[in-house]
Amino acid sequence: MSNKNSYLVIIPARLGSERLPNKPLKILGDLPLIAHTYNGVKNMFQHVYIATDSAEICDLCESLNMPYIKTSRQHRNGTTRTLEAYQLLKDQYDYIINVQGDEVFISEKILNPLVNLLETKHPEAATLQAPIKDKDCASNVFVVSNTRNEAIYFSRSPIPSSRGNSSVRFQHIGVYAYTPQALHSYCNLSPTPLEMTESLEQLRWIENGNTWAIATAPMKPLSIDTLEDLEQAKAII
After folding, report:
1. Total of domains in the chain
2. Structure confidence by residue, pLDDT tens digits, 64-79
């Protein structure tokens, strides 16, 4: 467990995924996907909640003893849902960590570099990357960073261009950490042109002159975005 009990972990969950409807309730092994994500973080942090507007997900959480927060249906992304969950708790935390619900293979090994970054550098906002070892695929989100380990850009296109070189590309992992002030600031920002072009909400923070500190995990765990991802995950379990 982190030596900071003042971390709040929120796992946003909704049923309306376009690529895989009812995704949190899909079964992998003997558990729904959202339970795998919760189990991957519950032993590392003291305060972990699933945030959802779905009565079905709330019922599931109760049946599996997973703490949850019922949120509004009005959210356009998981970040604003995370903010509402934090506000409803009415407690103070040093960092709020948003773990995407499709990160079903998330683990302490993956999260430790992020926690170390938060505890040593104290950034306003931070996220995770990992070197890409498998072939590029349509679901990859690539990230490039500067020499201070801050994200320069995120893209669904392969970046940087290799141009015949063997440079390592990095893939983004769907985990975001914010100070409460940074989370409030982000949620007060309007969508930005590059964010809408790439369909990547993390670009909003950069386009407004802010920085993402980047921690590097040893590997990118498989996340479940499509039915094909789910079938691949079933072969792993």
Report:
1. 2
2. 999 999 999 999 899 9
